[in-house]
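Fill in residues.
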């Protein structure tokens, strides 16, 4: 079972759930490009095999990172968990949020991913990287904040 489902409070419902953007697999494509270039230039099967091994290790590492990262918005909190062995999590109640910021570079705008920074009471700022459709994520948080104000 997922970390987020395990940590839900009584009467808490998940309203928005996502995992990191597929851009987290960029290193696999870099290793594949190096492999193709190495085989094309040097025709060395040993060096090419080594590059292929590094690419496979990179893929496994990225896959574990992808599968072990979760982002959710509930009717009460924002829950974010990243990491497998070295875990980083954020569980912040909606009434403790001062702001939600989105940062997107050129590649983020083109591929629709970005960094979401959640500013909590007391000036804490928690950045979370590779969020798919970060504007939608921020919009969902703002909708929940707005509903909380209306209550």
């Amino acid at each position: 079972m997922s970390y987020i489902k395990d940590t839900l409070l009584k009467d808490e419902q998940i309203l928005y759930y996502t995992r990191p953007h597929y851009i987290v697999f960029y290193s696999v494509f870099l290793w594949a490009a190096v492999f193709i270039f190495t085989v094309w230039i040097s025709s060395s099967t040993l060096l090419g095999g080594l590059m292929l091994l590094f690419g496979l290790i990179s893929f496994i590492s990225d896959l574990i990172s992808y599968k072990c990262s979760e982002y959710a918005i509930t009717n009460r909190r924002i829950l974010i968990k990243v990491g497998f062995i070295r875990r980083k999590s954020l569980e912040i109640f909606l009434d403790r949020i001062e702001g939600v910021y989105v940062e997107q570079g050129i590649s983020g705008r083109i591929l629709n991913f970005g960094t979401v920074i959640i500013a909590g009471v007391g000036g804490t700022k928690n950045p979370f990287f590779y969020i798919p459709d970060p504007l939608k994520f921020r919009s969902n948080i703002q909708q929940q904040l707005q509903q909380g104000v209306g209550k």
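The chain has five helices and seven strands.
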